[in-house]
Write a structure and sequence with these properties.
single chain; alpha+beta; elongated
């Protein structure tokens, strides 16, 4: 619902400023990408299908690159949640930003589970 509200206000503000339809459309697309990326900010191993190999995986919200180091953490702490971030490089186009994610900071909670090697 907040996404629609953001879009409505942005469209009204841009229309009032005399922006062209293409400028309005570009701004609405930018808001949608930002909102989509913000709506999924952490993932668990179960949410990515308990993948077992490093690689690039397509999920419902975009592509996620998972490294061997990420998998090692999930193997030890199966309910750990990684914060998603969007890598920015000079070769990426504006269209791919917001659709490509990497795993960042890991959140371990004591009540989630005990590391397997301590069971």
């Amino acid at each position: 619902m907040a996404e629609n509200s953001d879009k409505s206000w942005a469209a009204r503000d841009l229309a009032a400023s005399g922006a062209s339809l293409s400028e309005i459309a570009a701004e609405l697309a930018r808001i949608e990408k930002t909102t989509k990326a913000q709506s999924v900010n952490k993932v668990t191993w179960a949410q990515v299908g308990r993948v077992t190999e490093p690689g690039r995986y397509m999920l419902r919200f975009g592509w996620v690159t998972i490294t061997a180091e990420d998998l090692a953490i999930w193997e030890q702490y199966q309910n750990a949640a990684f914060t998603l971030y969007t890598p920015v490089s000079s070769t990426e186009t504006e269209e791919t930003i917001g659709e490509e994610f990497r795993l960042g900071i890991v959140e371990l909670r004591e009540d989630w589970n005990v590391p397997q090697n301590e069971k």
